[in-house]
Amino acid sequence: MAIFPFILLKSERLMHDQEIINHEKIHLRQQLELLVVPFYVLYLLNYLVNRLKYGDHHLAYRNIIFEKEAYNHESDLSYLQKGSWFGWLKRSK
């Protein structure tokens, strides 16, 4: 979990999982893009709309625009260096 400016992990072994770390770093940048607090507001609103739309927690979570960007690019370890700011907007279309 990413709570600016920290990444919180369930176990020490996850510190060595580059894809999980990259996924959470993408969330940190999303939080920076929206000046932190608005990120959490939009994240929650998007989840709630998705929950109504899909009726399922997992589907609602996976379709949050911020999660889509993070999951789609977590294996691309150079994604953040490529300068793809506001990539979550492109994923919402």
TrEMBL record:
Question: What name does UniProt use for this protein?
Answer: Peptidase M56 domain-containing protein
